[in-house]
């Protein structure tokens, strides 16, 4: 069995930013031939997004772009032009999967309309990833991370009560929507293999966040009418303690939801008597405002020890307490190193890269790095001339007219 489980799958990726490229990356890292379509002369907007080496902006050295586009081949094309539309149609005929981010009201929507594409090729899987999906009153609207977080309800739980709500950090809507899109696409490919039929996949970023992130909010609201989870040190409806405690060289995440864990924690800090105090038996009620008689001894004990000392004792006591690592510590951590958290990638004109790997391990068909992220238009000749049969003189004319 080949290690590249998707080696016989060709994917056309017509999207930029986070969600669609991350979906394409996940498929490409497992062997799919992902062809990334970018705007001539401009490319994916993440090429303009840092970090950059030595903080010098360069479209071929964006850390975000390089991380999101490993193992892809890259071409430039403007399908809005008549010739570009014809070339896109030729590419579609070679594909098994189309990834796109067009909403029903976008000018490009007719290019990636699933029903029309699948009339010509019923096997096609057409995956769309947009802020609000392909139907519903907001489906034609554009959106951002902020609006997806707001509509999903996630922002209701982020921030302080006396300040505005916040969006989730680090493009969570895009990454989680991309992961959902990749999972759904692989399922659709299984159906395609069994039945010979493709299908349309509709991923809404707001739906993904609402499903994966805000379920606890919904449960709290339905059961006891709690509307907001913002502004609580320990988080509403949690069992004390569930918070970050400062220690001698940083912070520890401290929790002990089970009563036996709570008893072991109090014994570890030398205060087993607190477990016997009936005032502190209902730890849910005190989660948002713990009594000083309980919280101060806990805080003082953590402050007297280092993260390593605390973590060692907690492992011995079987307590779910963990240190908060700085990023340099995280990169060097033996657990993540053993699991291949960072992958080495060689790329022209730039030193060897260490980029985040995938959050999944398959024993028989592991992901691997075959190609670095493509240069803008790097594979135009290979795709257009060598594979589709266009003459190089045509490619020259396309460059001059802005087609590719």
What does this structure look like?
GO terms for molecular function: CoA-transferase activity. InterPro entries: CoA-transferase_III_domain, CoA-Trfase_fam_III, CoA-Trfase_III_dom3_sf, CoA-Trfase_III_dom_1_sf. Keywords: Transferase. The structure is a single chain. By secondary structure, this protein is of the alpha/beta class. The chain folds into two domains: 10-212 and 338-401, Rossmann fold; 242-324, formyl-coa transferase, domain 3 (2-Layer Sandwich). It is 36% helix and 14% strand. The chain contains 15 helices and eleven strands. The chain has helices at residues 19-29, 63-68, 82-92, 114-120, 145-152, 172-195, 205-212, 215-224, 259-268, 292-303, 307-316, 327-331, 334-338, 380-387, 392-401, and strands spanning 10-14, 33-38, 72-76, 97-100, 125-130, 200-204, 242-247, 250-255, 322-323, 342-347, 350-356. Helix 1 crosses helix 6 and helix 6 crosses helix 7. The radius of gyration is 25 Å and the shape is elongated. The mean pLDDT is 90.
Keywords:
single chain; about 400 residues; alpha/beta; Rossmann fold; 2 domains; about 35% helix; about 15% strand
Topology:
Blueprint: E1 10-14, H1 19-29, E2 33-38, H2 63-68, E3 72-76, H3 82-92, E4 97-100, H4 114-120, E5 125-130, H5 145-152, H6 172-195, E6 200-204, H7 205-212, H8 215-224, E7 242-247, E8 250-255, H9 259-268, H10 292-303, H11 307-316, E9 322-323, H12 327-331, H13 334-338, E10 342-347, E11 350-356, H14 380-387, H15 392-401
Parallel strand pairs: 1-2, 1-4, 2-3, 4-5, 5-6
Antiparallel strand pairs: 7-8, 8-9, 10-11
Helix pairs in contact: 1-6, 5-7, 6-7
């Amino acid at each position: 069995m080949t290690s590249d489980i998707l080696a016989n799958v060709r994917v056309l990726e017509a999207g930029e930013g986070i969600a669609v490229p991350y979906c394409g990356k996940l498929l490409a890292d497992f062997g799919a031939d992902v062809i990334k379509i970018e705007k001539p002369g401009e490319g994916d907007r993440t090429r303009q997004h840092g970090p950059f080496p030595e903080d010098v902006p360069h479209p071929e050295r964006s850390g975000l772009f390089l991380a999101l586009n490993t193992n892809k081949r890259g071409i430039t094309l403007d399908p809005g032009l008549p010739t570009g539309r014809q070339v896109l149609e030729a590419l579609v005929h070679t594909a098994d999967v189309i990834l796109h981010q067009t909403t029903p009201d976008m000018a490009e929507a007719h290019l990636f309309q699933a029903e029309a594409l699948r009339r010509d090729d019923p096997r096609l899987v057409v995956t769309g990833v947009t802020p609000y999906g392909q139907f519903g009153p907001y489906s034609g609207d554009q959106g951002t991370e902020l609006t997806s977080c707001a509509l999903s309800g996630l922002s209701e739980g982020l921030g302080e009560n006396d300040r505005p709500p916040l969006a989730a950090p680090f493009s969570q809507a895009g990454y989680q929507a991309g992961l959902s899109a990749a999972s759904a696409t692989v399922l659709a490919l299984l159906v395609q293999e069994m039945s010979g039929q493709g299908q349309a996949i509709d991923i809404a970023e707001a739906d993904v966040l609402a499903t994966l992130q805000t379920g606890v909010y919904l449960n709290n609201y339905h059961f006891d009418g709690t509307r907001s989870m913002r502004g609580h040190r320990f988080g509403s409806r949690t069992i004390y303690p569930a918070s970050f405690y400062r220690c001698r060289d940083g912070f520890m995440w401290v929790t002990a939801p089970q009563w036996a864990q709570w008893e072991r924690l109090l014994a570890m800090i030398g205060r087993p008597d607190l477990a016997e105090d009936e005032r502190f038996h209902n730890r849910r009620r005190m989660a948002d405002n713990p009594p000083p008689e309980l919280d101060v001894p806990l805080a003082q004990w953590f402050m007297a020890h280092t993260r390593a000392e605390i973590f060692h004792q907690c492992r011995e006591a079987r307590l779910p307490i963990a240190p908060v690592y700085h990023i340099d510590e995280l990169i060097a951590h033996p657990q993540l190193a053993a699991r291949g958290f960072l992958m080495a990638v060689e790329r022209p004109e730039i030193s060897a890269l260490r980029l985040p790997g995938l959050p999944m391990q398959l024993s028989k068909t592991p992901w691997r790095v075959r190609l670095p992220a493509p240069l803008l238009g790097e594979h135009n000749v290979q795709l257009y001339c060598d594979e589709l049969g266009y003459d190089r003189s045509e490619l020259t004319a396309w460059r001059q007219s802005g087609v590719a």
